[in-house]
Design brief:
The structure is a homodimer. Chain A folds into two domains: 66 residues, Arc Repressor Mutant, subunit A (Orthogonal Bundle), CATH 1.10.10.10; 44 residues. Chain A is mostly helical. The first copy, chain A, is built from five helices and two strands. The first copy, chain A, starts with 10 loop residues before the first helix and ends with a helix. In chain A, helix 1 packs across helix 3, helix 1 packs across helix 4 and helix 2 packs across helix 3. A two-stranded antiparallel ribbon of chain A has the order 1-2. The interface between A and B is medium-sized, with 29 and 29 residues. Chain A binds a DNA duplex through helix 3.
Chain lengths: 125, 125
DNA sequence: ATTATTGTATTAAGTGATTAATACAATAAT
DNA sequence: ATTATTGTATTAATCACTTAATACAATAAT
């Protein structure tokens, strides 16, 4: 479940991305309470301070909020979540095409590779 | 030219990727001599030690080699370079589809988004 | 022969990320 | 009322990355 962190990016940033994906994908639903910091830290096998840092940043971005001693919750702003999902998807795509371009693939060549990949996928490989 | 490093990944790793792309794309040709460590360090605006570390790793991977006091060169192994290029392209693609899947897009939905993106690109946006 | 250029190694200092060990305030649960 | 649970803050120690300042050996250039 946890602990496949790249040694090369600060853990708290990797956690931010991971949780952002959970919220954007709907795996963590809007308005839903999330586990206490200490338990999340255990689940992710990191120090509570590190988890706290990640959650504080996500709160700064508006994706979660805190009720003083009750706990933390996913935002109830469905539009925000939807926007984040769209933005992430666009980022991933642009980053992908940009990398392929640096490798020397133009857009047509990149499309060709994608189509081959998808074809093989559909054949169950 | 340089100095747009993400604060979140060690610089020497970013340099490794950058140079690997240059070699894989053919921007740095096989067999070609590369600039001295000190000059590359200046071009990339990093410390010579940091550049040396990146180059040492690239040498370990076989992408460059050193002639004692003459300098460093891109490998002459065209097949290796071609393989690296193919591997990188595959990695980028798989990573992209994996991220999209985590966002809740299945392969068909991802293809739809790609096609829209490419269409807009062709219209010159 | 001498000089300049090449890669390489060493030592020291500064910075940020991470863990660890606590502690505290507010409130929900008993 | 008391206790447990919640988020949060603090201090210290460790580790990797990065820069800086040198120094050295081998060889190409002069």
């Amino acid at each position: 479940m946890a602990n496949d962190y790249s040694a090369n990016v600060p853990i708290y940033l990797q956690i931010i991305n991971e949780i952002k994906l959970k919220i954007a994908s709907g795996e963590w639903k809007t308005g839903q309470r999330i586990l206490p910091v200490r338990e999340l830290a255990m689940q992710f096998t990191v120090n509570p301070n590190t988890m706290q840092r990640a959650l504080a940043e996500l709160e700064r971005e508006g994706l979660i909020y805190t009720e003083r001693t009750t706990g933390k919750f996913v935002t109830s702003d469905d539009i925000l979540v939807s926007n984040v999902r769209d933005m992430l998807a666009r980022e991933y795509m642009q980053s992908f095409f940009s990398s392929m371009q640096k490798l020397g693939y133009n857009m047509g060549q990149t499309m060709k590779i994608i189509e081959d990949y998808v074809t093989k996928y559909k054949e169950g490989k």
